[in-house]
Amino acid sequence: MVTPVSPIYFAKSQLQFLIDVLRHRGYSVVGPTVDQEAIVYSEIQSIDQLPQGWTDEQAPGHYRLKKRDDESLFGFVVGPHSWKKYLFPPKTTLLSAERTESGWQFITRSADTTKFALLGVRACELAAMRIQDQVFLDGPYQDPLYRERREQLFVIAVNCTQAASTCFCTSMKTGPRCEKGFDLALTEIDSGFLCEVGSERGREVLDVFVNLARRASEGTSVVSNTDNDNVISPSIDDATPEQLRLAENARQQAVAQITKHMETSDLPGLLLSNLDHPRWKDVGERCLSCTNCTMVCPTCFCSSVTEVRDLNMDRVERERTWDSCFNPDFSYLGGSLVRNDTASRYRQWLTHKLDGWHAQFGTSGCVGCGRCITWCPVGIDITEEVAAIREGASP
Ligand code: SF4
Ligand code: SF4
Fold this sequence. Notes:
This protein is of the alpha+beta class. The chain has helices at residues 15-24, 84-87, 123-137, 144-152, 169-172, 200-217, 241-257, 279-286, 292-296, 342-361, 371-374, 382-390, and strands at residues 8-11, 28-35, 38-43, 54-59, 62-67, 91-100, 103-108, 116-121, 154-158, 184-188, 192-197, 237-238, 303-309, 315-322, 332-333, 336-337. It folds into 2 domains: 8-90 and 112-257, no CATH class; 279-311 and 322-390, no CATH class. One iron/sulfur cluster is lined by residues 296-299, 353, 366-372, 382.
């Protein structure tokens, strides 16, 4: 149960104190940064590393960074990275073995003590984390690395104030408003942020942050990890009705910009009842089986385990790496490929995500983030494929 706290308002420069408090508490703070002409997630120490004044333009097979005409820190949507890489890393060493004089010695992975604080998590991404929690934590077998990192995770959500042409979170009922699953949630308005509390841990951090920022505004020396020591800042206070109204308007702007839609009333059921629909062949001719859609998807969780030895044959590592149902070898079973053409692999991905996932996990595997549409090199759009299968579908 979270102790109710009224939303507070603070100025943009004061976000630095929140980063400082988290770093002081041993968190590695990860947030959006600009790198290689995209907004990607990376460890940050300072608000100067955030993509201030940048936005992203997205369409099927298209992503471009553009300058905004204001200095927004979170004035963009989602990029090619998702937060899953911090809880379910692309490559993990599960076990290693070393040859010794007395034979092979096995070394198991030691507990992971990394504490991540994620800054800028969107509503669809919170939903994706809840889905991956079900996959990695709720079944009969828990993933220990995921559990260790998830238990220590601190989440600062940021409500979307704009949407891309590829977003359809409203169809999947996952956004754009952050409703649950965060410690703190921010909404950016012109001069600052409205901050809501979502957990007791969030409230504790907020108390320390407010004290620190108030002392700074009074000119008292504060402990800070950055060059912003002793900055004189405006004070923090409960949000005014006008600030609450501005924040609501900003959030509604994102809702108004969402134009993409996926009809879900007949999902699950529609796809698995139409496994012979001609659209599968059609999409199979366009799809490159490149795996991009599964790599950028915040809910996809397939992996493979391989054993890699060094050249001296003295050390072997068992590695788990992200894999994809679009890789032909992923369905190699009993001496042959179970899904030996692209159409069958695309069908596997879509039917699992939107249909089979319901039976397995009680939820859709799609949160409507639109990444698979943007980052598909040939612009295949999951919402268009579902709509096409619905046309002329068997009952
Ligand atoms: S299937 Fe596409 S739109 Fe849905 S969650 Fe994955 S990347 Fe996002
Ligand atoms: S749907 Fe697009 S992104 Fe996915 S495997 Fe096919 S070509 Fe690649």
